Prior knowledge:
Layout: H1 4-7, H2 10-15, H3 18-35, H4 47-54, H5 61-71, H6 81-117, E1 122-127, E2 130-136, H7 137-157, H8 178-189, H9 203-229, E3 237-239, H10 255-276, H11 288-315, E4 317-319, H12 321-327, H13 350-363
Helix pairs in contact: 3-6, 3-8, 4-5, 6-7, 6-11, 6-13, 7-9, 7-13, 9-10, 9-11, 10-11
Amino acid sequence: xxxxxxxxxxxxxxxxxxxxxxxxxxxxxxxxxxxxxxxxxxxxxxxxxxxxxxxxxxxxxxxxxxxxxxxxxxxxxxxxxxxxxxxxxxxxxxxxxxxxxxxxxxxxxxxxxxxxxxxxxxxxxxxxxxxxxxxxxxxxxxxxxxxxxxxxxxxxxxxxxxxxxxxxxxxxxxxxxxxxxxxxxxxxxxxxxxxxxxxxxxxxxxxxxxxxxxxxxxxxxxxxxxxxxxxxxxxxxxxxxxxxxxxxxxxxxxxxxxxxxxxxxxxxxxxxxxxxxxxxxxxxxxxxxxxxxxxxxxxxxxxxxxxxxxxxxxxxxxxxxxxxxxxxxxxxxxxxxxxxxxxxxxxxxxxxxxxxxxxxxxxx
Length: 364
């Protein structure tokens, strides 16, 4: 990932790194051995060497298994490379998703605070980028809040199952104990047990990709609102930190929202690969499965980067209440047909909707 430290927090970069994938593969092999009543001492491995050697096999599991079998000839018994890599993906995704959910929780908390604090802060509602009718900044923030909680809950519920099917999804090499081993294997890893192996039934990965895309996309929507509100000609919000220009010292760019938007676009692009990979041949894919690995890591990383950047922007957001009121044009009351003279008196159910949003958030 080019300039990845600029976009993705350290914890998330570590959670989807090559080292994290290797650790997950080793955890998977240990669980497989334990589920069959054996122990596996894994030791230390150089992931860059495994990846280099894995080029001839098309995956890094094959050279890893050769080394494991030097220590325990029974290592990897009954499994295929895809079983190990898919289950490793489930572990990596679980860990990274937890970090993303934490960031989204922070975004939601910031939105809830803004909704409550600015329930009476009147501003112009804008449709097609034109002033429409009066709203409150609290109402805008409450809409952000509901969207973030919705996306957060969907992502938190998306979990990849364990994978164990053997050469072609029959687990024939494990004989009569096959299903018992599968159950114990999934239990030890604290992953959902699949009904049947999902080697080329990639709905779990696609659904996770969709949840990441939705979360990143909505984060991008909130970030875009902030960018528009921060325009010099509008000037209704400002980010407290950063935003320096290399040549124009007067500028205060909405850098947190800008990075959030950039990350959201990257996350959605990577998630689209996971959706495109749904069509896979028979019992083992030639290429589509392989394309998922990097796309999954990047979708997780950039979705988390988007949420982290937006969280920073919202936590330090300065709201110019007076500017919001001053920017309202008299035309925003045209719908009221002269019966109302002040924007404050034409807010409809805005306060009720804010309360409903906060109730939704607190009950989530």
